[in-house]
Amino acid sequence: MNELGELADAFLKACARHKILSATAESCTGGLIIAALTDIPGSSSMVDRGFITYSNEAKMEMLGVSAATLDAHGAVSRETAVEMAAGALARSHAGIALAVTGIAGPDGGSPEKPVGLVWFGLARRGEALIAEKRIFENNGRDFIRRQTVRTALEMGLKALE
């Protein structure tokens, strides 16, 4: 099992210990987090669902991200990541939701929001929402997406410790 597989397995075991399901809300990873989770045999007892919300319309329709948030802050922002995580939790049976939105490149970056910028959101029932920002080195789209998956799973594990 590779590093992402080991992290996914550890995260799912933590979910099992807490007797909760997990959900994901993914933009820049396009489903890589939920894929890593569902690659683990038996994951169906710890995974509820994954939302792939690549477009702003999908973020609004599937997760309830507000148009005002997207207009004011953009899709790649702390505010959007938090609303994505909260929306995934509200629209699932999960006890924890991981959300990611970022710029994986190779284009789409700007001086304010460079390629490699990713915002992470984490929501747990009955707890405060968590947001974290990372700017990964621009070593290519695949590198940024894999680092995003790794970081999201690490955040989930930390939240369940």
TrEMBL record:
N-terminal signal peptide: none
Superkingdom: Bacteria
Transmembrane portions of the chain: none
CinA C-terminal domain mapped to chain residues: 7-157
InterPro entries given in the database record: CinA-like_C, CinA_C
This protein's name: CinA family protein
